[in-house]
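hey
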């Protein structure tokens, strides 16, 4: 994108990242009418809905790193594909460009709300009895209000900037670290109620918008929905899809509250809103709440195979909605391939900022895809995915290769013709598979995929 193609004004920017929210879990993505998602449907109606948007990982913290930095997480952590520990140190390297530091460098006020799960403090691990720095404010955010990781992980109180709130003077904070509803934190006055988390985050976010609306602002809103525990405010009851459906509807309601605040302050026309998810939805029937929703007719990930943790499409391909009235055509759908790592380069393009070398190594400017009237050339020739178990996959055009460790053979699918990945066509397309394998291997060795990101 040239400077002449860039928008002439700096928009406010809000990135909403849902947690474990599946491709098929909103009305605009084909969910049953009994599931009420009017505010997400509004974003689709007033903006553009993408059908081929990919998280870089099929679990949480690696995707958050990729979204925030425009760089694949495995370039830092290697082939480990899992989630970082709740007390892990900050994962983003000092001085690395992030969504927040990019915007702050252009005069934006910046804030993050909700689930962090990118680590706090320096190695080896977080000490909850000390100031929680480095953290969000070390990578470009002016303000942070949220929780360290998942709701059950602890510490079970809110963090504001570098401070663990509600500490009892003179007592040591100790966190029971197993992932369980029986977890607790000692040394704090009161544990938060998990069913009130989403409302609390949105209260803080909408108030911050009101107080900072006189200047361009950037908000990263990281919801806890619909990750376990499926605890939601008591006003949300009665979904035919049970607790899981209630939690989805609470997420949608909170998105609506943010949109309503923009409307009330007359900011909507100059605000870019992006809604997406860190990975696909959970589809394990061993979870009774997931089973109840699926048995009631909710295809959490639509027609996609697999879900969170897996190397199949249901693990990576998720909802991606963008709205900027007057700039992004309303009520449109794009089948172009886009990755969550592309958000950083896209914002840099909108702000007419040249990306520095050795930063945003896997980020491509998708602004044209947000606005084009008819599909043009792809912005990237491939996107790489990394599953929770360390398995790599690569999509090129209509094709997706899953790299298997010997003695297993790689798998190849045409995901346009076979979105459910039910037919492995590797044997009939060995040459294509070999080309894709070489490109994947080269991308890992080289250290970047954006052509001008190298030294």
């Amino acid at each position: 994108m040239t400077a002449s193609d860039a928008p002439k004004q700096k928009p406010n920017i809000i990135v909403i990242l849902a947690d474990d929210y599946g491709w098929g879990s909103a009305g605009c993505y084909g969910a049953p009418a009994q599931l009420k998602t009017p505010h997400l449907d509004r974003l689709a109606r007033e903006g553009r809905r993408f059908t081929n948007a990919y998280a870089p990982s099929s679990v949480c913290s690696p995707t958050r790193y990729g979204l925030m930095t425009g760089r694949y997480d495995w370039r830092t952590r290697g082939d480990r594909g899992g989630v970082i520990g709740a007390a892990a140190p900050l994962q983003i390297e000092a001085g690395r460009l992030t969504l927040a530091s990019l915007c702050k460098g252009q005069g934006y006020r910046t804030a993050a709300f909700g689930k962090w799960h990118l680590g706090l403090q320096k190695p080896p691990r977080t000490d909850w009895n000390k100031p929680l720095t480095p953290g969000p404010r070390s990578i470009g955010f002016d303000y942070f209000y949220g929780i360290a990781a998942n709701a059950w992980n602890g510490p079970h109180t809110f963090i504001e900037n570098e401070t663990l709130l509600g500490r009892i003077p003179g007592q040591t904070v100790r966190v029971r670290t197993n992932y369980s509803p029986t977890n607790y934190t000692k040394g704090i006055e009161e544990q938060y109620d998990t069913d009130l988390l989403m409302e609390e985050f949105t209260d803080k976010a909408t108030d911050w918008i009101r107080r900072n609306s006189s200047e361009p602002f950037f908000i990263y809103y990281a919801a806890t929905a619909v990750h376990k525990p499926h605890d939601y405010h008591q006003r949300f009851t009665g979904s035919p899809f049970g607790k899981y459906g209630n939690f989805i509807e609470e997420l949608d309601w909170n998105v609506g509250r943010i949109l309503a605040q923009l409307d009330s302050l007359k900011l909507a026309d100059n605000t870019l809103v992006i809604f997406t998810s860190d990975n696909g939805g959970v589809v394990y029937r061993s979870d009774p709440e997931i089973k109840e929703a699926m048995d009631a007719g909710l295809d959490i990930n639509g027609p996609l195979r697999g879900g969170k943790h897996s190397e199949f499409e249901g693990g990576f391909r998720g909802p991606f909605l963008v709205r900027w009235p007057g700039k992004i055509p309303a009520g449109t759908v794009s089948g172009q391939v886009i990755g969550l790592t592309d958000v950083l380069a896209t914002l840099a393009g909108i702000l007419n900022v040249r990306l520095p070398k050795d930063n945003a190594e896997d980020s491509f400017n998708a602004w044209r895809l947000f606005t084009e009237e008819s599909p043009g050339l792809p912005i990237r020739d491939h996107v790489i995915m990394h599953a929770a178990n360390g398995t790599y996959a690569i999509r090129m055009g209509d094709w997706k290769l899953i790299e298997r460790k010997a003695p297993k053979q790689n798998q190849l699918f045409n995901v346009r013709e076979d979105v459910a990945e039910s037919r492995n066509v590797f044997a009939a397309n060995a040459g294509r598979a070999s080309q894709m394998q070489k490109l994947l291997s080269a991308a890992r060795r080289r250290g970047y995929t954006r052509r001008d990101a190298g030294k």
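DSSP finds eleven helices and 16 strands in the chain. The chain has one domain: 8-380.
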